[in-house]
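Page 42, continued from yesterday. The earlier attempt failed because a stray header line got pasted into the input along with the sequence. Redoing it now with the clean sequence only.
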Amino acid sequence: MKTNRRRFINLAGVTVTGMIAADMTGMHASKKTKQSDPFAHTKTISEEEHKQVFNMCGYSAPKLATVRVGFIGLGNRGPVNLDAMAYLEGVEIKALCDKRMVRVENSQKILSKHGLPPAMEYGGSDDAWMELCKNPDIDLISIAVPRGPLHARMAVCAMENGKHVAVEAPAASTLEEAWQLVETSERTKKHCMMLENCCYDFFELLTLNMVREGFFGEIIHADAGYLHHQNNFIKPEGGDMWRVRESQHRNCNLYPSHGIGPVCQAMNINRGDRLIRMTSMSSNDFIMGKMAAELAKTDSFYKEFDTDSYRGDINTSIIRTLNGKTIMLQYDITSPRVYSRIHTVSGTKGIYQKYPLPGRISQGKDDWFTEQEMDELTKKYTPEIVKRMGELAKEIGGHGGMDFLMNWRLIDCLRNGLAPEQDVYDAATWSSIVPLSEWSVANDSNSIRIPDFTCGSYKTNLPLDITLSMGGNTGVRKLK
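This time it went through. Structure tokens are written below.
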């Protein structure tokens, strides 16, 4: 069933209004009925049946000898992706857009640093990005604006105007937006890749290759998450407090893809298996509300944030796949914990735990493998993409090299007419954890169905190929 556009817009409006009006914390039993009401449509959408128009998994779009790229959003992630793209042969940076023109001007300096010509400028208003999407001289649009409805809205607009899309995570904030991405990509035959850089982390790639080679046997369970202590109350320079507002009005896992993306690839989700049900639970808020109250005592800027509606500090979700496998997924950016994405993969023949770095492996013995054994395994199972591009990626940088590796492979796929290694179904599935966990938390952690965004094609979709058997020939300009 195709989502009606007017219905999509209306429901999205109801979602935002409901989120702001309702108490999302789940802390007070007397408010449970009120909490459930704004999310009734989420459960309805999760159970709707859809029909696939065209299978984008493995789809080879026409080759682009030169990929002409436009960038929307140049505050934080945008310049990182811009810098990575500027290194690549066969890329032309055609347009830059941000509502704050100073960011556009700063990004022009990145092009100058690389010896590239200046790009066309868009900005100065909230909707300047729409004009960039209409530019006929662009093949790919890279989107890096604050999380929320703009991710999906911009991606849909770009595809409707004949552009492939690379969008920061999460790609959608509601189930309606997730289906809109899928339906638009299938109808326009334009790729929509979520820029989940953790799928290109060297350790995650090593794990994936070991899984592919059968080292751990059949995968049974995975632990994943995003544990990253952050002070979200620092006043931004020229920006806004979108992260705080998000935490103030949505009680759920707000950032699932860093953790779930790599383990979904290891478990062949949407390519032989799929996620079917999830239950989610949040702790109370012990930190953010108190911080806001203390700051508001001495600074009126924080008055609007002095509420008792903040999400729980830690969210934990349990997910089951159709083939009977499970995933534990956590989210915590407030408590003082050492950074971790957890990333544990457990199979019938062994287990891998990434954290604490550099990770450890066991195959049923009474102890973990020795450092020497780990070095030998790393040397044996390092995947081809790391062998070929790993050292260069580290030299260029960006989260240890994974940002560059992600952008390089995306361009390499488009230039060779290959499907990106993350498709629109991955973007929709991984992003759907946000609204689904929100529903579950608000409904006493009841289980909720996870939609099959592939509409059944997961049964025949091939597993992700990480051998670089095709492509891998995109060059890199001389390092400056």
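Notes: Confidence is low (pLDDT under 50) at residues 1-36.
Reminder to self: strip header lines before submitting.
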